[in-house]
Design goal:
Mean pLDDT: 91
CATH class of one domain: Alpha Beta
Helix content: 25-40%
Strand content: 15-25%
Distance between the termini: 42 Å
Strand order of the largest sheet: 2-3-4-6-5
Structural class: alpha/beta
Largest sheet: 5 strands, mixed, barrel
Number of helices: 17
Radius of gyration: 23 Å
Length: 476
């Protein structure tokens, strides 16, 4: 162990985990997100740090669905009640007055899975959408007009930690800013020693901004192999990753036929990966609803009004020259036609230049102590609810009276997100060094908003590149 390992283990003894790549080979062939893998590694590691590989393998075979699992057969053929840890999707069947569920990894479809009313009433957390949890399943054979079904008899949300946000905030004081940046990068499952500079590290952790700040909308374009999909698909169960296919107004906002709210209302963020391959149906209606949502956090479909705090993250590829620079200065030209509207793009708060990050290589794989991903994701989720950071940002900034409202909103939200990530221990404006706030919160916020402004000016003559002259008060 090096000094960073010892410090993380000392400050976070109950929520840190020791990671070396060979340990995670036990999950080969298993499609599990990082927050599940980390929990399992910790569960089966003893006080001396030894991993019980056999015990972990047996637990996964018995309780975690996979493509060759016999769990479905045990339920149907042998009549067992089986308890599993799994991802499942809940939806309401209005026509049949039933709450349905599906388990994709078991091949249980929504018309085969049923949640009895008494179970739904007992567990209010069983609501529409995708979730991770521990569920007990039994098979009920056909009776009369009722078809056979797999039923949930019990449910426990996958929340293995009682997260004390205040402890986390106080613990930050034990680390210098460079040390803390490395803690964040390790918790994202990357090796901070694989980055070339502090600037590159700061750019990399910018991917966490939408995890920590509500209603924050960002675009990242990068070449393939820089880890975009991994971060947004593995770090948190509170996000939804859309990879290809068709996005509809019903799926995103509200399904009129099923009377169901869409994914934007259930998650902390929605990331559209490989956005150039995604198709959008009913483009005009969807675009109108999206503009309103990105601006106000609300939408109206068929006289039904919905609200959400989810941010939207667009992830796309961009072709580069031999010098690793974009082939065109017009970054948005490769986006699908749906996103070629300047009025829609203006509602995105910032842009991440992903080509400035490293391609994934062996040196970027984390080795050593990190925060457990499940714990880390819960911390990010809780930070979203803390409004004192935006209040601190408001107190620190000197904003011109004639400043454009959208630019001001974007810069304030981005700065608030950086403050949460880098200085979570700060509880009032007097507790942060103004130079630190300017350098690590305000400047990157202005840079990311400035890229959006510059691109808008290139595609639409109604826009100018200029940003409001927003500064830190009393900065000498």
């Amino acid at each position: 162990m090096n000094q960073a390992d010892r410090k993380i283990q000392s400050v976070f003894p109950d929520v840190s985990v020791y990671k070396i790549p060979k340990r995670y080979s036990v999950f080969s062939g298993k499609n599990l997100p990082s927050f599940i893998k980390d929990w399992l590694i910790r569960k089966f590691t003893d006080a001396e740090g030894e991993l019980d590989v056999q015990g972990l393998s047996m637990f996964m075979e018995e309780h975690i669905p996979h493509k060759d699992s016999d769990i479905k057969n045990r339920i149907r053929t042998h009549g067992e009640e089986v308890t599993i840890l799994t991802r499942f999707i809940v939806e309401t069947d209005i026509l049949k007055n039933a709450l349905r569920f599906s388990v994709p990894d078991l091949g249980i479809k929504s018309n085969e899975g049923k949640i009895p009313d008494h179970v739904a009433k007992k567990h209010s957390a069983l609501k529409e959408g995708e979730m991770w949890g521990i569920i007990s399943l039994i098979y009920t054979p056909p009776e009369g007009k009722d078809k056979g079904a797999v039923e949930i008899t019990d449910y426990k949300p996958f929340k293995p930690y009682d997260v004390d946000l205040e402890y986390f905030r106080e613990a930050r004081k034990e680390f210098s800013l460079p040390e803390w940046l490395d803690v964040l990068i390790r918790s994202m499952e990357y090796n901070p020693e694989g980055f070339k500079s502090l600037t590159q590290k700061l750019l990399f952790i910018s991917r966490l901004l939408v995890f920590a700040e509500p209603n924050l909308n960002i675009i990242e374009l990068a070449p393939k192999g820089t880890g975009k999909s991994y971060i947004f698909g593995n770090i948190s169960k509170y996000g939804w990753l859309v990879s290809g296919g068709t996005v509809t107004r019903a799926k995103l906002f509200y399904d009129i036929s099923k009377n169901l709210m869409g994914i934007i209302t259930h998650y902390d963020f929605v990331a559209m990966d490989e956005v150039e391959t995604i198709r959008f149906s009913d483009e005009n209606e969807l675009q109108g609803a999206l503009k309103n949502y990105l601006e106000y956090g609300s939408f109206t479909v068929a006289n039904v009004r919905g609200t959400g705090s989810a941010g939207l993250m667009l992830l796309g590829n961009i072709p580069l020259s031999n010098e690793k620079q974009p082939l065109t200065s017009k970054y948005f030209s490769g986006l699908p036609s749906f996103f070629q509207s300047s009025a829609l793009l203006e509602r995105f708060h910032g842009f991440i230049e992903g080509w400035k990050l490293e391609r994934m290589n062996e040196n970027l794989k984390v080795r050593g102590y990190t925060l457990n991903v499940e714990y880390f994701s819960e911390i990010l989720h809780l930070l979203r609810e803390k409004t004192d950071y935006s209040h601190i940002v408001g107190e620190l900034l000197d904003i011109p009276r004639n400043a454009d409202t959208r630019d001001t909103t974007a810069i304030k939200r981005l700065a608030s997100a950086y403050l949460k990530l880098l200085f979570p221990h700060v509880k009032n404006a007097g507790e942060i060094n103004r130079e630190d706030f300017n350098e690590f919160c305000l400047k990157p916020a202005i840079e990311k908003r400035g890229i959006i402004r510059k691109q808008l000016a290139m595609m639409d003559s109604e826009y100018r590149e200029d940003l409001p002259d927003i500064r830190v008060k009393n900065l000498i």
